[in-house]
Design a protein that fits this description.
The structure holds two protein chains of two kinds. By secondary structure, chain A is mostly helical. Chain A has helices at residues 9-22, 26-38, 41-56, 59-85; one strand at 2-5. Chain B is built from seven helices and eight strands. Chain B has helices at residues 7-12, 17-20, 33-42, 98-107, 115-119, 125-148, 198-209; strands spanning 2-5, 51-52, 61-66, 69-76, 81-89, 154-158, 162-173, 176-186. Classes of the chains: A mainly alpha, B alpha+beta. Strand 1 of chain A pairs parallel with strand 8 of chain B, so a sheet runs across the interface.
Chain lengths: 88, 227
């Protein structure tokens, strides 16, 4: 099975620059990035969790997980801003 | 790039944050002349011409003028958002001048966006649930349609937000028929104001591909059949 993502223009441009620097094709880099992302525990956990929850019809559990991720991201961003305020 | 006001900036303008904060500034530009000016200027460029040096923070913040109103904006590159941090009246040389008030906030560590401001960028629980419900209903349906019409791309808009295409090809390997499923997701989304977080895409894939899909078989090809 294959999954395809069209990336935004600015991301595409950055990938093109990186590909030139590394003497690789953009396709190589995107495929490598996907392989690495697919192997992350976060992606594997989310995918497997959602698969099981869809199979059992527990849709609120998936929504709750998305909500948890949103809260964690918001907390991390706020913490990064606080960290950025400290004199270097 | 999104344009946002912090909840504190909404309070400065006497606009109810619980009503306005979950929205992009572009969606509430008519609520106040300052919001209108913010959208007009920072919509063209995330930075301004004049900066204000903050007493405690190293971040570069830009002045915003709208009549007698003055505000400070900050380009949050990490979140891809320009924030209007706070607003007040210009009273040159007075303690109540907008810039003096905002500098004191910086010293007190309450000028920049806080956790709730960042949470306002995220989808609410009910929106997430609506998305999941739509994926549960529409995901298997689009795969079913694609299986009925092998070799033909079937398109759908999931949850009125994500434009996806699914194509099923039947290939014969060593005499055995196997199914190859292609899922294309158009980004940025057609309806939502912001990019969906990665886990929404993961949920979408899980919902479309179904419980029998093996994660090890999911690949990112360089070329899609309908390009």
């Amino acid at each position: 099975m294959s999954q395809v993502m069209r990336v935004p223009d600015e991301v595409h441009s950055e990938v093109q620059v990186a590909a030139r620097l590394l003497d690789r094709t953009t396709g190589d880099l995107l495929t490598r990035a996907w392989e690495l992302y697919r192997q992350t525990p976060e992606f594997q956990d989310d995918f497997t969790f959602a698969q099981k929850a869809f199979a059992t019809g527990d849709l609120k559990a998936i929504a709750a997980r998305l909500d948890e991720r949103a809260h964690a991201r918001a907390a991390a961003r706020a913490a990064a801003v606080r960290e950025g305020r400290k004199p270097s | 790039m999104d344009l946002r006001l912090t909840r504190r900036a909404f309070e400065d303008l006497e606009l109810d944050p619980s009503e306005y904060a979950p929205r992009s500034a572009r969606a509430c530009a008519g609520a106040h002349e300052v919001v209108h000016a913010f959208v007009e200027r920072r919509g063209q460029s995330p930075i301004g011409q004049e900066t204000t040096r903050l007493p405690a923070s190293p971040q570069v913040v830009y002045n915003l003028h709208a009549g007698r109103w003055r505000g400070l904006t900050w380009h949050d590159e990490e979140a891809d958002v320009v924030w209007l941090l706070g607003v007040g009246y210009h009273r040159s040389g007075e303690r109540g001048d907008a810039y003096e008030v905002l500098k004191r906030r910086d010293e007190a560590d309450n000028l920049f966006p806080e956790e709730q401001d960042y949470l306002d960028l995220e989808a609410a629980f009910d929106d997430g649930l609506a998305f999941v419900e739509a994926v549960a209903e529409e995901g298997p349906a689009i795969l079913r349609q694609a299986r009925e019409r092998p070799g033909e791309r079937v398109t759908a808009v999931i949850a009125e937000a994500l434009d996806i295409g699914v194509l099923v090809e039947v290939v014969v390997i060593d005499g055995a028929e196997e199914e190859e499923v292609w899922v294309g997701i158009a980004l940025p989304p057609i309806a939502h104001l912001r990019f969906p977080p990665g886990e929404w895409i993961t949920v979408l894939l899980a919902g479309v591909l179904g419980p029998s899909a093996n994660l090890d078989d999911v690949d990112l090809p360089g070329v899609v059949p309908w390009r």
